[in-house]
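Justification of computing resources. Each target in the renewal requires a structure prediction run like the one illustrated here; the chain below, 109 residues long, is used simply to show the kind of job we budget for.
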Amino acid sequence: MDREEILNLCNDLDFDGHTEFEKLSPKKKLLWLSNTAYFVNKVKKQKVKQVKIFSCFEEENEYETQRQKKMTSKERFEEFAVLQERIWGPGWSEKKISLTVAVDEEFFK
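Resulting structure tokens:
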């Protein structure tokens, strides 16, 4: 019996959130996490995202530059908009930005 068939036999009470995860052995915790990740990816029908590990900032910057070169202007704008919303919150494009500058008088001497 595969996972799909097992899931079809389950009901809502089987997913009430009580796993007692802290009581599982390390091996069972990994198995539980693995099965949960598999289930989530299967349900969402998303690809497993690849994680890149870089040895230095320069390598990461080069990879990011190459990645952005492959993007259209629209894709880059949409990515930027997502980042801006994470920082400034929803409606970030409608809010006015005020700039406050403090000048040290010693700078002009």
